[in-house]
From TrEMBL:
Pfam families: Archease. One of its GO terms (biological process) is tRNA splicing, via endonucleolytic cleavage and ligation. Ca(2+) binds at residues 23, 150-151. It comes from Methanobacterium alkalithermotolerans. Belongs to the archease family. The keyword Calcium applies. Keywords: Calcium, Metal-binding, tRNA processing. NCBIfam families: PRK00407.1. This is Protein archease.
Amino acid sequence: MNNNFDSGNGSRPQFEFFDVTADAGYLAYGSTLEESFENAGLAMFEVMTRTSQIQKVEKREIEVKSEDKVSLLYDYLEELIFLHDVEFMVFSDFKVNIKKEGEDYILHGLFRGEKFNPEIHERRDEVKAVTFHMMEVIEENGYRVRVILDL
């Protein structure tokens, strides 16, 4: 699996994988918090399958509310895993809007993809869960998020 995924516009990669024993870890980047979350979703599905093979024929929406950015990232990715586990959905297009209301962060997400089909989609690793281990959201020349997935 290629470790770096470049958006093709000459800027930094959308995300990159790093080695973690028995798990999958990655850093996702974005010029905004929303873009870093979108790329975190894309990276997670790249662990599961080749996202370039996913057609954008169905859409799903979610809304999650959390007390901080790290918890919001965790809850967002867990919702995506839920959609995959229950509806067998895989996504390749992610649109996220994040706003702060009082003490909470609220994420509204719109995702496009299709049901996983083993005749079309490459089966890679099964993601069991997102972990809080080493998870972070850093604002520095844009945003960087670190995620470790339990496989």
